[in-house]
Specification:
The structure is a homodimer. By secondary structure, chain A is α/β, with parallel strands linked by helices. Chain A is built from 15 helices and 23 strands. The first copy, chain A, folds into two domains: about 270 residues, Aldehyde Dehydrogenase, Chain A, domain 1, CATH 3.40.605; about 180 residues, Aldehyde Dehydrogenase, Chain A, domain 2. Chains A and B meet through β5, β6, α8, α15 and β20 of A and β5, β6, α8, α15 and β20 of B.
C-alpha cells in the first residue's frame, strides 16, 4: 500500500487540501515523507453524512456478518503487519517487538469484541411477558435490548499507534456494537494511520457493507476534531489523550444543542501504596518492580505510576536508596514526539522546583532532543497535602515518593486523591487487615485496584476495567477495555406488545439467536448453548 | 406526623430560614398551611457532608440490610398512606384513587429495586482467573463489579408527587444501589414531601443506618437546587421535569470542575402513527383509545401523546371527526399548579396561532383558574415540516393530528422528530410489513416503541425503558424505570490479584452470596439458586 497523505472518506479519498503536515522520526530527528493533508470542513460533512446513511443498514446487519467483518479486518491487519509495524517504528520510536505485540493486541481486541457482539449477552436482552388478566389494568408484553447509538468519532492516541488508534479499542467496540466510526488520526503517526485505515476500508468493501461504516480524517491541528465532535450526525466520542484535550472535547459535546456522550481516557498518576510489613519483607523486590513499571516504554503509559506512598522508617529508606540506584542507571529512551519530550522535561523541572520536593535520582540523558531520562523525587505527606500540583501527571519515566509519617497521614493522602485509572497496594495479609480503610477509600478513587503488582499492563479480558472517576476519564461509569466496552456505544430500546414477526431476532419468543436473556426477571440459558 | 415546614437534614431538622413559601390547593384556589422554609446554602453543605460521611458505611452494608431498610420504608409509607394521600390530594388536585395507586406503585418500586439489589445480577460481577503460565506474560486474576457513585441529588417531580418525588423511582434506585440521597422537594407539594421525608428519616433510623443516608431540602426557588448540583460531594443527579429545568442542571453539572452524570427526564411529545389498514378497520376504536390517553390525568404525563401522524383519506377524516367529538365533550380537570395551567393555556394559544394549524375541537372549560380543557388541532405534514415549534411539548390534554399526503411524507416526518420517550404505531400485520422503514426510524428516536397501544402507563418491570435520546432525556443510555435504573448510579471497579479475603463478598471465589457471575467469559449460575 502506497501512502498518499489524503483522508479516507468511505470508499474514496479526499482531495489534497491546503493545510499539510508531516510525521517525524524521533530517533533520526527528521520529518518523514509524504505530506499529510489536513481534512476540510466539507470532508467532515461528507464523512458524517456517509456514516449516518450507513448506520441505518449497519445497525441491522446480522451479528454474524458484523463478526465476520471484524475477524476479516484482524486477518488483514496481520497480513499488512510488517509494513504497519515498520512505519509505526519510524513515526513513534517505539521498538519493533513492542509494536508487534501491540498489533497482536489490536487484532485480539477486534476478534474479542466481534465474538462478544455475536455471543450477544452484552445486549442485555429482556422479556417480560404480558398478563392480560392482571387487575386493575392488564400487564403489557415488554421486551428490550441495547441498540447502537449512531456514528461515533474516535480520536487516535499518540502512545498506542495501533491498539488505541485507527482500528484500536474504541473503534473495535463501536463497530462491534453496530456503529459507524469516523477516526480523527493522531498527527504523530499519520502513515501508520493511513496504512491501517486503508486496511479497514478494504475490509468494509470486502464485507459488502456501506462505505460510510468507516472514514479516517487527517489534521495537523484541532479544527477537524472540533468540527467532528460538533457535528449533529455524530452521536458519541471516544478519545485517549491529555486531560486538556479530553476536557475540551467534553465541554464541546456538553454545549451542543444535542449533548452527546464523550468517553475520554485522560490518564492519571496511578498511586502505589507500599504498606509496612511488605516494605520490610520485600522492599528490594518492590523497588525493582516499580522501577520496571515506571520506566517501561519510556514511561509513556496512562497507567504509569507517578506517585508512591510509603510510611517512614528504615525499610523505606533502604527501598528509596535501591530505587534511586536503579533510576540513576536507567538508559534514556526516545520519546514519541518532540512535544511529549519537551513537556516531560518541563514536568520534571517543575517537580524539581516544587517546595518540599527533593530530587533523589536522575537517569542517564540521551543523545537526541527526543530522549527522556528517568527521574525519582521525594516529598513528605505534608508537602503533598500543601501542593495540588504534585497530583498532576508528568507523562514519562518520572515518579514521586511521598513519605507519610503515620497511618493517618497515609489515609489523608489517599482521601485527597483525584480520580485515577488505577491504585496499587503492596502488602502482606497482616498489612491488609490493618489497612482495610485504605482499600475502601481507594475503591472510591480508581477504576482498578491492583494488589502486590504494578498498574502498567492492561489485560484485555471480560472483567477488565480501564476507567475511573474524573479526571482519569470523562465518565467513570464506563471502561475502554474489556467486555463492558461495547455497551458504551449503545442505549436500551423497549418494544411493547409487538407481534413476534416485527421484533428484532434477539427478542423473538423462540430465541433464534440462542442468547442469554432475562425472562420475567430470571436469567434464561439458551437451549442451543446449554452446558 | 405534624408538618413543621423545615428541611430534613439527616436525623435532624433545619432551622426556619428567611425565605418561605406555601403549597397551593388548585381546587379550593387557596394557599395551604404551614409555611415552608427554603433551605440555606449552609443546609446544603451540612446535608452533603453528612451524605459523604454516610457513603463510606452505606456503600458497604450487607445487601440484606439494604433490602430490609427499603422494604421497611415501603411498609411505613403504606401505614402513613391515608395522611400522605390526603395531603397530596390537597396540594396537587390529583384524585384520591390515582394517588392511592401512585402510592402503591411507589412502594412496589421500593420493594422491586430492593429485591433486585439483593438478588445482585445488576452488579454485573465478573471473574477472569489468572493463568501464571501464559506466555509472554502471566495472565492476572481480574474481578470486577458495579459499585455505587456517592451522594445523589434527586429533584421531585410536580406530576408524580409520590412515584417520582421524595421516595420515588430515582430515590429508590439510588438507595438500592448503595448511594445516599439528598432530595430537593418540588415546591408544589411540600407537605406531601415532608410526610414522606419524615417516613424515610424514621426508616433510616430504624435500620440503624448513618443519618446522612437521606436528607430533604425545601426551596421555593432554584438556589438550593443549583447549590446541590454544584456541590463537590454530590456525584450524580436525578431529575424529572421540564426541558428548560433539565438542561439548566445538565449545563451546571457539565461545567463543574468535576463533571457529574445527570439523569434528567424532560418529557416529550410521544408521537402516535396510525397506519392505513388499521385506520380503516379500527379508526373509531383508536380514536377512543387516543382520547383516553390524551386526557388521562388532565394530560399531565410525560408520556402524553402530543402528535398523531395519519395518512390522508376518508377513514382518517372519520377518525378525526370521532376524536373531535370526544374532545369537545371532555369535562375539564384541575391541573397541578396555577403555573402549569397558565403554561398549558399559552401552549394551546400558541398552537391555535401557528400557521397551517387549525383547531378541530376544544373541550369544556372549567370553573377555576386551574382548569385545563382538552384541545385537538390539525395540520398538514407540510406545515409540520415548516415549523419546528409543533415539536414542542404542550404539557396538558392537547394533541395535534398531522395529516401526511403520502408514505414518503410520513417517513420524512418521522425522520425529522427529536428524541422521544415513546413512539407508538397502530397497524395491521400488512401495515407493519409495508412500513418496516418507519419502525427502523422510530427505533433511533425513542426509548420505547408501543404497538397498537398508547404511550401513557409505564409498566414497572425489569425490561421497561423509560428514557430516550435527547431532548427526551439528558442521557439516552439510561432508563429511570425498570431493572436497569439501578446501574445509573454505579460504576465498575476491578480488583486485580486480590487475596480472596480482601475481595468483596460478591467476587469471592466461593460465591457466598449466590450471584450470577460471568466467570472466564461464561455466565455461571449460582449453585444455591439453581433451577
Amino acid at each position: 500500500m502506497k501512502l498518499n497523505g489524503t483522508s479516507i472518506i468511505g470508499g474514496a479519498r479526499a482531495l489534497a487540501g491546503e493545510r499539510k503536515f508531516r510525521a517525524f522520526n524521533p530517533v533520526a530527528d527528521r520529518a518523514l515523507e509524504p505530506d499529510y493533508f489536513s481534512a476540510t470542513p466539507e470532508d467532515v460533512e461528507r464523512a458524517a453524512r456517509l456514516a449516518a446513511a450507513a448506520f441505518e443498514n449497519y445497525a441491522h446487519v446480522s451479528v454474524q456478518r458484523r463478526r465476520d467483518f471484524l475477524h476479516d479486518l484482524a486477518a488483514r491487519l496481520e497480513q499488512a503487519g510488517p509494513a504497519i509495524v515498520e512505519r509505526a517504528n519510524w513515526e513513534t520510536a517505539l521498538p519493533v517487538p513492542r509494536l508487534q505485540s501491540e498489533l497482536g493486541r489490536t487484532c485480539f481486541q477486534l476478534r474479542l469484541y466481534a465474538d462478544l457482539a455475536a455471543e450477544g449477552a452484552w445486549l442485555d436482552a429482556r422479556i417480560d411477558h404480558a398478563d392480560p388478566q392482571r387487575q386493575p389494568v392488564p400487564k403489557p408484553d415488554v421486551r428490550s435490548m441495547l441498540r447502537p447509538l449512531g456514528p461515533v468519532a474516535v480520536f487516535g492516541a499518540s502512545n498506542f499507534p495501533l491498539a488505541y488508534s485507527v482500528a484500536g479499542g474504541d473503534t473495535a467496540s463501536a463497530l462491534a456494537a453496530g456503529n459507524p466510526v469516523i477516526v480523527k488520526a493522531h498527527p504523530a503517526h499519520p502513515g501508520t494511520s493511513e496504512l491501517v485505515g486503508l486496511t479497514v476500508q478494504q475490509a468494509v468493501k470486502h464485507a459488502g457493507l456501506p462505505e460510510g461504516v468507516f472514514s479516517l480524517l487527517f489534521d495537523g491541528g484541532t479544527e477537524i476534531g472540533t468540527a467532528l465532535v460538533s457535528h449533529p450526525l455524530v452521536k458519541a466520542v471516544g478519545f485517549t489523550g491529555s486531560r486538556r484535550g479530553g476536557r475540551a472535547l467534553m465541554d464541546l459535546a456538553a454545549a451542543r444543542p444535542e449533548p452527546i456522550p464523550v468517553y475520554a481516557e485522560m490518564g492519571s498518576v496511578n498511586p502505589v501504596f507500599i504498606l509496612p510489613e511488605a516494605m520490610e519483607q520485600r522492599g528490594g523486590e518492590i523497588a525493582a518492580g516499580l522501577h520496571a513499571s515506571v520506566t517501561l516504554g519510556v514511561g509513556q503509559f496512562c497507567t504509569n505510576p507517578g506517585l508512591v506512598f510509603t510510611l517512614s522508617g528504615a525499610a523505606t529508606d533502604r527501598f528509596l536508596l535501591r530505587l534511586a540506584a536503579l533510576i540513576a542507571h536507567t538508559a534514556p529512551g526516545p520519546m514519541l514526539t518532540p512535544g511529549i519530550c519537551r513537556n516531560y522535561g518541563l514536568g520534571v523541572a517543575r517537580l524539581a522546583q516544587t517546595g518540599g520536593v527533593s530530587a533523589l535520582a536522575r537517569g542517564e540523558t540521551g543523545p537526541t532532543g527526543c530522549s527522556g531520562g528517568a527521574a525519582l523525587f521525594r516529598a513528605t505527606a505534608h508537602s503533598f497535602a500543601a501542593d495540588n500540583s504534585l497530583m498532576e501527571e508528568v507523562f514519562g519515566p518520572a515518579t514521586v515518593a511521598i513519605e507519610c509519617g503515620s497511618r493517618e497521614e497515609l489515609l489523608a493522602a489517599a482521601r485527597s486523591l483525584e480520580g485515577q485509572l488505577t491504585a496499587s497496594v503492596h502488602g502482606t495479609e497482616a498489612d491488609l487487615a490493618a489497612h482495610r480503610e485504605l482499600l475502601a477509600i481507594l475503591e472510591t478513587k480508581a477504576g482498578r485496584l491492583v494488589f502486590n503488582g504494578f498498574p502498567t499492563g492492561v489485560e484485555v479480558c471480560p472483567a477488565m476495567v480501564h476507567g475511573g472517576p474524573y479526571p482519569a476519564t470523562s465518565d467513570g461509569r464506563s471502561t475502554s477495555v474489556g467486555g463492558r466496552a461495547l455497551a458504551r456505544f449503545a442505549r436500551p430500546v423497549a418494544y411493547q406488545n409487538f407481534p413476534d414477526a416485527a421484533l428484532p431476532d434477539e427478542l423473538k419468543e423462540s430465541n433464534p439467536l440462542g442468547l442469554w436473556r432475562l425472562v420475567d426477571g430470571r436469567l434464561a440459558q439458551p437451549a442451543t448453548t446449554a452446558g
